[in-house]
Amino acid sequence: MASLPILRGRWVLPKALSGDNGGVNLGAVGRVLLLSLLPIAELRGGLPLALALGFSPPAAYALAVVGNLLPVPFLLLGLDRVLRLLQALPGPLGRVVRRYLGWQEGRGRARVDRWGPWALLLFVAVPLPVTGAWTGSLIAVLLRIPIHRALPPIALGVLLAGVLVLLASLGVIALL
Q1: Residue 145: phi, psi to the nearest 5?
Q2: Is residue 43 within 8 Å of 68, Cβ to Cβ?
Q3: Do residues 84 and 98 touch, judged by C-beta distance below 8 A?
Q4: How many CA atoms lie within 13 A of 27 on its CB side?
Q5: Backbone phi, then psi, for 18, in 5-degree steps?
Q6: Are 42 and 70 in contact (CB under 8 A)?
Q7: Is 151 within 8 Å of 110 (Cβ atoms)?
Q8: Is the pTM for the entire model greater than 0.85?
Q9: Domain ranges in the chain?
Q10: CA distance 141 to 166
Q11: How does pLDDT run across 58-90, given as a tens digit for each residue?
């Protein structure tokens, strides 16, 4: 099993997660990355999972942040096409999609009109339900914010959310 240099060493990766030859347990890494890139869970689920699997706080933070950021460029580039298809759905499902997207657009427009694309940082950084990188990307696409202006605040929001979730997971701060 190949080892990942960024995660090698006893400070970052506990011996229990190492493979037979001291490499990284790719199954554990994969689970953390997968949960972190999924909507709703994002790093709010991936980071505590990484800690529960025995990763050190720096390794847990790094894996969850990378996993959460992986889908963002693809969302910013391709979500518009998916949204057009979903909005064209007939019947009650189409109405629900259009209502939800209208709610998200209205929710984001007031803040983006006031603070510009940096308002996306708030949507992403606050570790509450219906926030995160997926929501920030959705709002950026709905408001037609170009990728080069949307990606930096979303990435910074993920970094800040990671710090907040890490501190909460370690019991340093209490969220809600």
Answers
A1: -85, 125
A2: yes
A3: no
A4: 5
A5: -75, 150
A6: no
A7: no
A8: no
A9: 5-68, 72-166
A10: 29
A11: 999 999 999 999 999 999 999 999 999 999 999
Over the chain, what HEC string results?
CCCCHHHCCCCCCCHHHECCCCCECHHHHHHHHHHHHCCCCHHHHHHHHHHHCCCCHHHHHHHHHHHHHCCHHHHHHHHHHHHHHHHCCCHHHHHHHHHHHHHHHHHHHHHHHHHHHHHHHHHHHCCCCCCCHHHHHHHHHHCCCCHHHHHHHHHHHHHHHHHHHHHHHCCCCCCC
The amino acid occupying position 49 is: L
Q: Take residue 109 and report the two structure tokens written for it.
A: 């427009």
Q: How far apart are CA 130 and CA 44, in angstroms?
A: 12
